[in-house]
Each structure stands twice: as structure tokens, then as C-alpha cells.
Amino acid sequence: MKKTSLLLLSIHLALLSSCSELQHVVNNLPDVIASPDGQLSNTYISNGLKEALDNGIDKEVSKLATENGFFTNESVKILIPNELQKVDQTLRKIGLDKLADEGLKILNRAAEDAVGEAIPIFATAIKEMSIEDAKGLLLGGNSAATNYLKQKTSTALYQKFNPIIANSLDKVGANQIWKDIITKYNTIPLLNDAQNPDLTSYVTNESLKGVFKMIAIEEGNIRSKLSSRTSEVLRKVFALQD
């Protein structure tokens, strides 16, 4: 395939009318691509995508593993389950704000306990990223690399997070606190909608959403902001998609 500038390649990709055509072009990208800084090999491009994901994990996901990593971050803070919104509102109306707040904080603490276990799972997935994967992800949109990581790791992360979160909820007495909340709610006169959600499953899923949201934020920054490209590899590789 004749070498061409990334600009012409991007225009061609934008005009393609089907996914099969897009995949054909991606699969036939040249082994060496011209860039403003010279010739970049597919291996170099692969290294750039891997570094971008590593940055997302190091800079953003690691923050979630600290105390208040979820609880004070409004973009990923785990809120009361939909099933319990009415419970929360009712308790606050009758002056039990402290009890409701404690229940909310404990959900976020459980998520923070689990996130540290994600790092080795992410490391394995990034290491296994192929050159063909990287070529497609570079031109795949603002969150393409994050979506790749989500596809590769979600099942393993859920299996790892779920028992940790269950143990965390038990350890700090969350199950008892929520039992107290539900019991108090269910004893309020004239209410006939008893609640009993699976908190462990809920917190696990919300934790995963938060983790991938933070990785996507860093990927988006690297793709759109020159100041976020903090290494030569990132600057050269992501210049190709500008």
C-alpha cells in the first residue's frame, strides 16, 4: 500500500460508508506511517496507545483507590440506588439525614477498597494489545482505547470487585446499616413498597462505570490537548490523529 499522509487517510476514512470498508483500510495501514516528525512504525504507534492507557490508569484510576476517591468526586460518586431514592428522601424528611449520609458514604468506601485490584488486570490487557488493535484504535474516536480496555477487562474486573465489595460492606457494617435504613423505612405508616436491593451488585457495577469514565477522561485529554502529551511517544503518535 502506497504511503500517504494521515490527513488524506483520515479524509478517506470519513468518507467510507460501511464498517467492512473501514476495517479493510485499518488492516492495510502501512507498516511505516508518515508524520510531521518522521516515519512511525506500527510498533511505535502501539507503544503510544499503550502509554495513553497506562497514563489513564496511573493518573486517574489510582485516585479512585484512595479514601474519598469516589465519595468526593462528583463525576463518579456512587449515589443511592434508584430503588432506594424514595427511602433516602423519606428518611431526610423525618430528620434522619445522618443515617442516610452514612449509608451513602459506605457505598463509596466499598468501591474505593476494590479499585486497587484493577491495576494488574488492566496491565495484562494492555500488554496483550496487538499492533492491529493499536492501528484501529488510533483513529477510532475519543474513547476508542478505553472502550477496548472495557471490552477486554469488564468480566474479570466484575469477578474481582464483587467479593471485595461484599467483604468491605460486611467489614464496616454496611449491610447492618442498610438493614437499619430499610427497617426504619418499612415501619413508616402507610408505606407499602418494602425495599431490598442487591447492594453488592449495584456498587460493583457503579464502581466499574467510574473506573472507565476516569480512563476515558485521560484518553480524551491526550487526544485533544497537546499539554497532556507528556512524552515524545505520545506527541508523535497522537499527532497522527490531529
Shape: elongated
Percent helix range? 55-70%
Major β-sheet strand ordering: 1-2
Give the SSE order as H and E letters: HHEEHHHHHHHHH
Structural class: mainly alpha
Report the mean per-residue pLDDT as an integer.
78
| Whole-number count of domains | 1
Q: What is the tally of helical segments?
A: 11
How far the N terminus sits from the C terminus, by CA atoms, comes to 22 Å
Number of strands: 2
The biggest sheet amounts to: 2 strands, antiparallel
By oligomeric state, this entry counts as single chain
User: Could you list the spans in which at least 5 consecutive residues all have pLDDT below 50?
Assistant: 1-37
Radius of gyration, in Å, reads: 23 Å
| Strand coverage percent | under 5%
Top keywords for this entry?
2 strands; 242 residues; mainly alpha
